């Protein structure tokens, strides 16, 4: 009877509009309905899960002065409730309703912060019935539940009985809501997070073990579906790995604290994800900026990797996630050589096929533009275009389409990624060098071309040789017009200083630590243009890019190289592009 009622509620949520869903939510989360279907009520906690996120104690003092700073934005609340003011950004609003700021108040370690936290949580409970739809997004509710569980000791220790009961009733209602809404179509990571919250509740709250027995099988199935064999997430967003591991690791600890065996699916997923984080990490410690990845918070990465054993990681190729890694000497290069994620999981995916990022030592050199922190930013769509990545475009048109859909509960607009049909790449060793051969057909239907890219990282790590081709498939012909052109972009990190040399089609690149690299090209004209770097942890920054341009009325063949120049040794007489031509001959056709 209970499962039938819950299933009917889930079906209702999936077909109703926003108004209808709000009505169903109000009914399904009422104390009367929970009692009617036998949903368990929370009374007291047995254990408290650990919050691995780094806290900022200064948040408390700013809050006392009437400033509520979240997600890089500060709202002046004064004596008003933060739940009644106009939010300064959507990201700020999401952080507010997720209650993630509780860990900052707990870090202040004083009674004033505790009382402020209690007042703000009571304020949320009082406003919850009239909260905007974003507050009832499955992902936000799951984060809120996890935050309440993780900081319940801070909130409830020494609290008076009415307050204690108020919080536990609210927690019961939110858990019940998650048990109804977690199956909402289109959710990937949010669904996993909702299931994680339900399992944490079953392990941490007394007499709530039914959540474990009910949802553990579904959680394990979802882990196998979303965490790929090589450790990547089905969305192909590296940030999702960090986000999920911050919750999976405390969940594993809670299983052990309750003397339960952590499920093998969870242990296996954690190990694979750890290996993938190491695989996609560049020389400066950041994760490669592909498919929604923005700034890397080194404190969170360090907190996660502190739990890592000697996890195996993919060597050169992560075939399920679609990434390739070339590492020789001090040079690390990571390329996106995988197809777009499943349509429902592509809300953060970028059209950056065959793009790469490169570091020399701890200095980033060639990057992608990254993603803004605020998804409502004007850059949120632009950064997903092919032109925002270090790869080739035809007539400044992206290799994929963005399709606007309303998905999720509450329904919200998202731009999902469609195409290309075929993307592949592979790295092989060649006499100590590493050779990447990759292709995609994102321009085949419109322009008649397939983009082939070959990269060779020589054994000493001081030379990268590249070839980009636009070639027609067998029996095919170009569909381009006379005015069509190509552009091969190499976005530079803001700390890199480029200078056009007197030598034709040559650019000198100076890094902050005085490293000097020389870029050369043949088959296109070389220009330096403006760019933007959205993945800075503080503010988006202006940057520059090297762009190779030319006509593409017929097939295109461009050879380029980046070579490190020893400051006390004259540059070799062997030109970079001739070396890259050798790479084609040695590597064969892709």
Structure description:
The chain is α+β, with helices and mostly antiparallel strands. It is built from 18 helices and 21 strands. β3 and β4 form a beta hairpin. α13 runs antiparallel to α14. It is elongated and about 80 Å long.
Write the layout of secondary structure elements.
Elements: H1 2-15, H2 18-28, H3 31-37, H4 58-64, E1 67-70, E2 73-76, H5 90-98, H6 102-108, H7 111-127, H8 138-150, H9 152-156, H10 161-181, H11 189-204, H12 210-226, H13 238-257, H14 264-279, H15 298-305, E3 317-318, E4 323-328, E5 331-336, E6 356-360, E7 363-367, H16 379-382, E8 392-394, E9 401-407, E10 412-418, E11 423-430, E12 433-440, H17 444-447, E13 450-457, E14 463-471, E15 485-492, E16 497-500, E17 506-510, E18 516-522, E19 525-533, E20 541-551, E21 556-565, H18 576-587
Antiparallel strand pairs: 1-2, 3-4, 4-5, 5-6, 6-7, 7-15, 8-15, 9-10, 11-12, 12-13, 13-14, 14-21, 15-20, 16-17, 17-18, 18-21, 19-20
Helix pairs in contact: 1-2, 5-8, 6-7, 7-10, 8-10, 8-11, 11-12, 11-13, 13-14, 13-15
